[in-house]
Amino acid sequence: MSNEIITLSGAAADVLYSLFFRGALLSGDLLSKSGTDELREMGFAETRYTATEYQKENHFTFLTSEGQKFAVEHLVNTRFGKQQYCTSMTLGIEIDTSAAQKEIDKLDQRIRDTVSFELIRNGVPFIKDATIASGAI
């Protein structure tokens, strides 16, 4: 397939979508006769009798190998031929938080130095810097 830009009618795009995602279809299952004709004229679809029957039928429309290639480009790599841009960017940021951490540490120490910090709920005294081992202080 060349690099030429191929534009499908809405009907042909619908048929391409159906044939790609659902596989070979009976004539009655195709969404549009004109869309099917358009794909046939482009060499993307073929309608014929098959040597193998499926559900007692053997006359199907299916994508040709060129039609498969086009469908992958048209439906998988792009969204109906329109390129989808998914940009991603990785940013590496370094922030010096030492000044903020220093202020947090000062505030923490001020809280620890208050009398109310020495009391836990219900006025139970809390001994600073105590270690509890085996249930004893």
TrEMBL record:
| Listed name of the protein | Fur-regulated protein
Recorded source organism is: Salmonella enterica subsp. enterica serovar Cubana
Task: Supply the source organism's classification.
Answer: Bacteria, Pseudomonadati, Pseudomonadota, Gammaproteobacteria, Enterobacterales
